[in-house]
Structure formats: structure tokens, C-alpha cells
Design goal:
The protein has 165 residues and is an alpha+beta fold. Helix content is 30%, strand content 17%. It folds into 3 domains: 46 residues; 41 residues, no CATH class; 58 residues, no CATH class. The longest helix has 11 residues.
Length: 165
Amino acid sequence: MGRKVTVFSDLSGKEADEDQFGKLVVRSHPDLDGPAVYLEALPGEIAALDEANVPMVTVEWQPPGEGENKTYTLSMEEFDKLAKGGSTSKLLDGAPRASGGRRASGEEINYATIEHAGRPHRGRISPEEQAFVREHLAEVNDRLRAEGKRLIDPSNKEHKEQYSL
């Protein structure tokens, strides 16, 4: 016979058999730095989520020129307020598909150049970008400073790993 394992709820501290627990996956939270985490929870502890659930929209603003992109999460109600001339449903139906890592012109951004190296971006940092940053760190940091972006710090563990400094 198998042993019963007792688990404690991360939310309430209540004790129950392991098979009674589910996982509440936290994918995004202001205090969460890194990948998603999960909490052990009993079904009754999260029952109110269905009532509290608010449909949300996540949008990314890509400003003209070289400005840094910003991501916003807002309620459907707030998103609908953006469309002054009609329904957002109609706007979305006719909107072109977005794709990441490209400019509006369709050309791919080369992060191994002085114009883009070291700039925060999605995806992995290529060996070419790493090499460019290592060889031109002062110039890259001068450009980042002028753009008001974070500098690459060789003493920062994360930056050391990202750029093989």
C-alpha cells in the first residue's frame, strides 16, 4: 500500500492529503522576477477567482524612432476606451498580424551593431552581439546612456553571463 502524503496549502496553511491539492500557477506578478512559480492550493481556496476574474488585454507600445517598447496590461473596459471611433472588436478583425523582432519596414534588427547592441530585447543574445558588446563596451554604454537605457555593467552577474564578459 502507498503512503498518504500530507501537504500544507501555501495560501492558508491548511493541511490535507496530497491528492486534494491543485497548483495555482503565478505567471506574472510585480514581485515575481523570472519564470512562473506555483503555489499548492485547495479548490475551495481559489473558488472566488471565477467571480473576481476580469478579462484583461496586454498590449505593447512601440514608439516611433528608437524609443523603448513598453508593455501594458489593462482591463477590456480601459482598452475599449482607446477606440474613439468605434468598437475594438472591429479594429482587431481588420488589423494586420504582428511579428516580433522586426521593424515596421519588415527588416530584422541586427543587435550586433553600434545602433542596437546591448539594448534590452526579447530573445537570446547572439554570439555576434556578445562579441560586439565585449569589443565596444564603452561606445555601447555611451549610446545606452544617451538613450536613457540601463548600462551594461561588467560587475553585474547577469550582464557577465549574457555578454560573456
